[in-house]
Amino acid sequence: MRNNDEMDLAIKYALRFGEIAVRKGFISRQQLREALEEQVYNGSYLRLRPRKRIGEILFEQGWMNQNQIKIVLQELASNKRQHSKAPKSYRR
After folding, report:
1. pLDDT in tens, 32-42
2. Structural domain harbouring 74
């Protein structure tokens, strides 16, 4: 990995998806790390196209199927709704 700042950003935003996928046993931590590295590499050095989403990379690698991605996205949406309803003192 050449650019740690970009890796940190990718981890910050993709980690929620990845952490849910790991917690559910869909992927390993190593697979998540490799997918994040690919996401950063493609976004940094191939600026002719938009950065791939972490779920897209995991699917392309054959590490997750469409149903698993749907499950993770549903949990993300549910968490977002719960978070937006929380009092401001509980928000991050």
Report:
1. 999 988 888 77
2. 4-90
